[in-house]
TrEMBL record:
Protein name as annotated: tRNA-dihydrouridine synthase
Limits of the DUS-like FMN-binding domain: 22-331
EC number of this enzyme: 1.3.1.-
Free-text function comment from the UniProt entry: Catalyzes the synthesis of 5,6-dihydrouridine (D), a modified base found in the D-loop of most tRNAs, via the reduction of the C5-C6 double bond in target uridines.
Lineage, uppermost ranks: Bacteria, Pseudomonadati, Planctomycetota, Planctomycetia, Pirellulales
Residues annotated as the enzyme's active site: 114 (proton donor)
Protein's organism: Pirellulimonas nuda
Length: 349
């Protein structure tokens, strides 16, 4: 794979190099997952799970602990972004200010793209706000003011549905309101995660942005696709989401491809098995055994995705209730290599 001329991404005064971002994903991108990604390298900017701003304020008023999704953030290496969601400018500004000035995060991102019913129809947040770009602008303006000088970004989708695509208008509103960058997922809210991301539509946004970078997101599941995103669609950065859940080393592979270096092969299944057990240890350390076992069921299924024997492994791992049971299921049923492989990518110790 040949190198493509990709410059570092600037989000305000923050340099993101390489311009490859790890997407915030509810239920997945906790501190343990981020530690795994950071160990492999290649991600220029990592992100937490998205944080419910209203819930944060409630916890603060009750003098309770900060939201669980912010565990480890205060002491974690930078750069690091935290994504927040709600529909009230003042609530989002209050939380954004705390993140910027107390937690000292690198970026405060506002979610305008989540299509999940609990966020959209029940809370009138996330991608629901694509119906009212003016409201989005008011939110961004208030959060930018509260977070200064920490950059504020927005993540959105193409529109509410295929017959209501308004991303050009939204992009101009986001820029005019003072956001430092825009990330666009190439599907509509109605699409959820079905079908394919429309990168042609993402590319059409770029000429309408005068000063802020455009970050593309959707279906980036290989180093080749990351290179193509820059070469074909003219984005300033990319955000990798679901594909990283079963390939947390994808960021390092993509970064190598952008440099023109040989792309490291995937770890062997034996190495993946050891990585998964290490991941489990990190989750136990943070959450304790009972909760860690429940959380690790979904991570384990991600690791096995697309591998021979994955169905039986998923079936067995869904039943585990103890750490010992998890380790036994991994030993007995996690897919195995069919033949010796070349040395592969492993995370830094």
């Amino acid at each position: 794979m040949t190198a493509t001329a990709v410059k570092p991404l600037w989000i305000g005064d923050l340099k993101v190099d390489p311009p490859i971002l790890q997407a915030p994903m509810a239920g997945f991108t906790n501190s343990a997952f981020r530690q795994i990604v950071r160990g492999f390298g290649g991600a220029g900017l990592l992100a937490t799970e998205m944080v419910n701003a209203k819930g944060f304020v409630w916890l603060d008023e009750q003098e309770a602990c900060h939201p669980d999704r912010l565990w480890g953030v205060a002491d974690e290496p930078r750069p690091l972004a935290v994504q927040i969601w709600d529909n009230d400018p003042e609530t989002l500004a209050k939380v954004g200010a705390r993140l910027a000035h107390e937690y000292r995060v690198s970026v405060v991102d506002i979610n305008f793209g989540c299509p999940v019913r609990q966020v959209t129809e029940k809370a009138h947040s996330g991608s629901y706000l694509l119906r009212t770009p003016d409201r989005m602008g008011a939110i961004i303006e208030r959060v930018v003011e509260a977070c200064h000088p920490t950059p504020v970004t927005a993540k959105t989708r193409l529109g509410c549905s295929r017959d209501r695509i308004n991303i050009i208008e939204v992009a101009q509103v986001v820029e005019d309101a003072g956001a430092a960058a825009l990330t666009v997922h190439g599907r509509t809210a109605a699409d959820m995660f079905r079908g394919s991301a429309d990168w042609d539509l993402i590319a059409q946004i770029k000429p309408h942005l005068k000063r802020i970078p455009l970050i593309g997101n959707g279906d980036l599941d290989s180093a080749e696709k990351v290179v193509q995103a820059f070469e074909r669609y003219g984005v300033d950065g990319v955000m990798i989401a679901r594909a990283s859940l079963n390939k947390p080393w994808l960021f390092a592979q993509a970064a190598a491809a952008l440099r023109g270096d040989p792309v490291p092969p995937d770890p062997t299944l034996a190495e993946e098995r050891e990585l998964m057990l290490h991941h489990f240890d990190l989750v136990i350390e943070r959450f304790g055994e009972p909760k860690a076992v429940v959380l690790m069921r979904k991570y384990a299924c991600c690791y096995a995705q697309g591998r021979p024997g994955a169905r039986e492994f998923r079936k067995q791992v869904a039943r585990i209730e103890t750490a010992a049971a998890f380790q036994q299921v991994v030993a007995d049923t996690f897919p195995r290599d069919r033949a010796p492989a070349a040395p592969a990518l492993t995370p830094a110790s």
